[in-house]
Amino acid sequence: MTRTAGRTVAELLEEAHRRLRDAQVPDPRREAVALLALVLSTDRGGVVVRKSDPMAVGDAARFEELIAARARRRPLQHLERRAEFRGLEFEVGPDVLIPRPETEGLVEAVLEAALPSTARVADLGTGSGCIAVALAVARRSWQLLAVDVSPEALRIAARNVANHGVADRVTLIERDFAAVPEAERGRYDAVVSNPPYVAEDEWRGLQPEVRDNEPRMALVPGPTGSEGYEAVARAASGMLRPAGLLALELGWKSETAARGIVARHGFREIVVAADLQGIPRVLTARR
To answer: The pTM is what?
Structure first.
């Protein structure tokens, strides 16, 4: 993609598709169209109707930069600097996890629980803030505490909180989520978390989009991958009121370990729900 003058949108799009395919990018044609839509400030339909148009030199150069980055396996969401979660748009980048569809089930589990209309909910390891913001948007009378140890992540979370107009009900705190100040003990109706749960050996086999571009500390809690569940369960046991809700996202092979950990920390009524692929994905329990 070096000779750009006079080339049409269709020609550049086809070459971009080949480059992404050769780089083993999943769904290369869809991603090439998405990046071209970004350059042209349009949507996929807008790309289609402009296929016969000549590409402006500046736009072609920008498109080439994006395709080269995607071929190096930088995530599409990082190049777009946004990701969708429960119909809401969030800023993302290398300092936070990209919101996944699986995590939407975690939010749904909290929304469907029998929580007070004025519930206080803590999101431990908030990252981009997508869970806390989604809960605050869906429940206008809830108060949210969003905790993360990363100041870089919290800066992104703060912008997402502000962009969705929930800054008056979402409080961002920088600290290790395993630490529970005395003032927060027994104050919360629910604790929700998508903690790091990838084991060391599993991390090495992840796709390069994840392994090389997302924050390792948000993925890998320790050698076994269960250390994050231990930290969250311990914190939640101190933060929750009696019968308070704990909701956790599970990794694809985390169910057994997570069940044992939350039970040891005094939680009962443990329920695990599967995602659309049948993978155990969300654990809920009561203090």
So the answer is: 0.92
